[in-house]
What we know:
Strand order of the largest sheet: 1-6-2-3-4-5
Mean pLDDT: 90
Shape: elongated
Strand content: 35-45%
Structural class: mainly beta
Largest sheet: 6 strands, antiparallel
Radius of gyration: 15 Å
Distance between the termini: 24 Å
Order of helices and strands: EEEEEE
Number of helices: 0
Oligomer: single chain
Amino acid sequence: MIDELKKPVDGSTVLISVSGVPEWGVLYSYPLRIVTEDDLMFMGDLLDDVTIVGVVTHEVMTMSATDGCPF
């Protein structure tokens, strides 16, 4: 779940838009940078092309019988 109004802090997982393409990333404050799950790093002038869409507040995961779910 994404909160579009929550302000990201150091270590926040965020949904970003890079030139219109959505990506997941982690925000680091010192120095300011965003690292994506593909290990791409946006910092300095590269952040001009990045828009933070929102902060991840919850992660919804599916479970099946093979995951040990009794249902």
